[in-house]
Amino acid sequence: xxxxxxxxxxxxxxxxxxxxxxxxxxxxxxxxxxxxxxxxxxxxxxxxxxxxxxxxxxxxxxxxxxxxxxxxxxxxxxxxxxxxxxxxxxxxxxxxxxxxxxxxxxxxxxxxxxxxxxxxxxxxxxxxxxxxxxxxxxxxxxxxxxxxxxxxxxxxxxxxxxxxxxxxxxxxxxxxxxxxxxxxxxxxxxxxxxxxxxxxxxxxxxxxxxxxxxxxxxxxxxxxxxxxxxxxxxxxxxx
Length: 239
Description:
mainly beta, UDP N-Acetylglucosamine Acyltransferase, domain 1, 2 domains, 14-stranded mixed beta sheet
C-alpha cells in the first residue's frame, strides 16, 4: 500500500512542487498528515519510514529513502541521495550528487554539495560547508563556518569548526580538532589528540605554539593566510 499521495497544493515559489499527504500511519506520521513538497514520486520512496515534513523540498532527481527525514525548510535537489536514518533539517541544503546516509545529521544552514558523502553518525551544522569529493563519517563533526572540500576526509571523533578549512587531500581523524581560522590542506594529516587553531591576528613571525605539537605527518598548514612549512624547523611564508 502506498504511504502517501501528492496533493494539488503547490509550493508558492515553485509550481512544479506539490505537497504530500500521508495515506496511513507509520513511524511518527499519522494518516492525513500533510508533509513537504516533491516534484514526483521518484523523490520520496513509498517504502520505509522516510518522510518530508514542514516546508521541506525534494526535487529534480534527488531521492529520499529508507527511514530518512527531511524537515523544516531543508532542500534536497540535483541527484542527491538521503537515506538510512539520516536527518536533514532547518534550512540545510543537500545538492548535486551529494549523499547523506546512516544516522548522519545535516542541519541549520549547512550545505553538502558536489560529490560529498556524509555518513554514520557524522554531523554537519551551523553554516558549515562540505563539498567536492569530501567525506565526513564515523562521529566526526563539522560546524560553525567551517569548510571541508576537495578530497579531504574527516572521521572518527574529529571536529572541524570555527572558520577552519580542510581541503585537497587533507585528513583529520582520531580526536583531532581543527578550529579558528586554521587551514589544513595538501596531503596533511592531523590525528590523535592534535589541536590546530588559527588566530585571525596571527603574524608571519609569530609561529603558533600549536606547530610544535603537530604530528610528524603534518608538513604544511595555512593559518590566517600564512603558510607554515615544516623543513628543519617551521618556516612562515606570507602569501
